[in-house]
Write a structure and sequence with these properties.
alpha/beta, 512 residues, 12 strands, 8-stranded parallel sheet
């Protein structure tokens, strides 16, 4: 680990910095999906040479239906598919385990095909775990890992083994005895699925060993990692299965309410996410122990944590079970500062996008956490009128305590967004950024770099200048195009990195 320098204890985001947003699944690799191996290190070294000092990622949990990292099967476990197979040969006493996969051009650079990755890479990962288990060598580190993490690992490994046994992650449809976690059923299934359970424990050991190594590598390069926590957990997660009382789940294991957001100018039906909402009075009884543990665990893995849908701590939109849209929901009070006071001395970003009220703004101000500014949300032109007072416009940023983005994982790429604007809006954008069409993306980046915002984060797609074919996610949709983008390192030209590093240096974002 790099030695601490003067000012190391200052909040990380209080210093002018520039970061790049790219999830590990987007790295090139010969296994159909990005991983934590050599390509990740090559990318981080490339970013470091360009004077980038922040790497932002999406949640790292194991994904389920829809492959969304925001609907993970565990809030504490890591995504096994990110494990680098090539690093396991020595650990598993294997020869060429990582060479068994089809090392084709498509697998190296193409979009992630999750069905193919599950069908191929997961088989090899389990083979590696079996080799590790059967290996006649000391497993002291593995045993220490299991002991330290038993509070979440045992339930997670059993849950995944049961998901595979029943071929269904919807635990509320399992046999009654195991659905309700009767002690006799837990004992029976733990014994019956002992081999599969052990495999998942080993895979988690592999993941955290590799992630911790990559985290150290990033820090040694001078790069801090911004992680991400979804405010809600998935209904078919181990978190919901093991903590009924913490969620709006009745005595029969059924959700009684759904999370979402109300109708707005973009979605007349609102967004029905379907996650279980929290039973906040139950959390309050033990002073929010589950949430405190969640934040503590995440901040062991990353240096800064972004809380997705931060406004939900002030009030949240709850929809009755059985509704097919989010129209008939209602606003209910969240825990507010009663919970957030526990995070006061942590490096936290509050995602304050969407429907923001004065109460939400007051909570954010009291917390002291930086919020987010997305340049695409600054332009709302109707009937030939452009609002120059929009607070997402760089010249209107209230203070430096914010993170300015060209776009997030949910946005169009900047090039794609610009191309989809009307002629009227394109004319305004060209004048505001003093740029012709072909250079508009870089001039948007330059404007954010020169703003008062302490932190600027740019998706990798925008550095390369890609259109919407490289979009990471289209909200409220499920399909193979979501969460599957991977970048081709051959498209990152030297001039792009030179231009980026020049802006970082000129605008004082070169962290010494």
């Amino acid at each position: 680990m790099a030695k601490k320098t003067a000012g190391e204890n200052k909040p990380i985001l209080s210093t002018r910095r520039c970061g790049v947003l790219i999830h590990p699944t987007s790295f090139p690799s010969p296994f159909g999906i990005g991983d934590l191996g050599i390509e990740a290190r090559k990318t981080l070294r490339m970013l470091s040479q360009a004077k980038v000092s922040l790497w932002q990622i999406l949640p790292l949990g194991p994904t389920g239906f829809g492959d969304s990292p925001y609907a993970a099967r565990s809030t504490f476990a890591g995504n096994e598919l990110l494990i680098d197979l090539r690093s396991l040969d020595m650990l598993c006493d294997s020869e060429g385990l990582g060479k068994k996969y089809d090392d084709s051009e498509n697998q190296t650079k193409g979009r992630v095909s999750y069905p193919d990755v599950y069908a191929n890479k997961m088989v090899l990962l389990k083979e590696a775990a079996q080799l590790f288990i059967a290996g006649k060598f000391p497993k002291t580190d593995y045993e220490a890992f299991c002991k330290e993490n038993t509070w979440w690992l045992d339930d997670y490994a059993l849950f995944q083994a049961l998901v595979n046994h029943f071929n269904d992650s919807r635990w509320f449809l399992w046999d009654e005895d195991i659905k309700t976690r009767k002690k006799s059923a837990i004992s029976k299934w733990t014994k019956q699925l002992s081999n599969e359970i052990e495999i998942y424990k080993v895979l988690q050991y592999f993941f955290f060993s590799q992630w911790n190594s990559l985290h150290r590598f990033a820090n040694e390069l001078g790069i801090k990692i911004i992680g991400d926590i979804p405010i809600y957990v998935a209904g078919d997660s181990v978190d919901a299965w093991t903590n009924w009382s913490l969620f709006k789940i009745d005595a029969k294991g059924n959700q009684t309410a759904l999370a979402g957001c109300p109708p707005d100018a973009f979605t007349e039906d609102g967004q029905l996410w379907g996650n279980p909402t929290y039973n906040w009075p139950e959390h309050e009884k033990d002073d929010y122990a589950w949430w405190r543990k969640r934040m503590e665990m995440t901040l062991k893995m990353v240096d800064v944590v972004r809380i997705d849908h931060f406004r939900g701590f002030e009030s949240y939109w709850e929809v009755p079970m059985g509704e097919t849209t989010a129209k008939n929901g209602k606003w209910l009070p969240g825990p507010g500062m009663d919970l957030l006071k526990h995070f006061k001395n942590m490096n936290v970003i509050g995602e304050d996008l969407g429907f923001i009220t004065p109460e939400v703004l007051a909570m954010k101000k009291k917390s002291g956490f930086p919020g987010m500014k997305v340049i695409q949300f600054a332009w709302d032109a109707k009937d030939g009128f452009f609002d120059t007072t929009n607070t997402s416009l760089p010249h209107n940023y209230e203070d430096s305590n914010c993170i300015a983005y060209t776009g997030t994982h949910d946005n169009e790429t900047t090039r794609g967004w610009y191309e989809n604007q009307s002629d009227f809006m394109k004319d305004i954008l060209r004048r505001y950024f003093q740029s012709p069409d072909e250079d508009i993306v870089w001039q948007i980046i330059r404007t954010l770099m020169g703003s008062v915002a302490n932190t600027v984060v740019i998706p990798m797609q925008d550095i390369i200048g890609l259109d919407n074919s490289a979009r990471m996610n289209l909200p409220s949709s499920v399909g193979s195009a979501n969460w599957s983008w991977r970048f081709d390192p051959d498209t990152v030209q030297p001039w792009m990195l030179d231009r980026l590093s020049g802006m970082i240096e000129i605008f004082g974002r070169d962290v010494k």
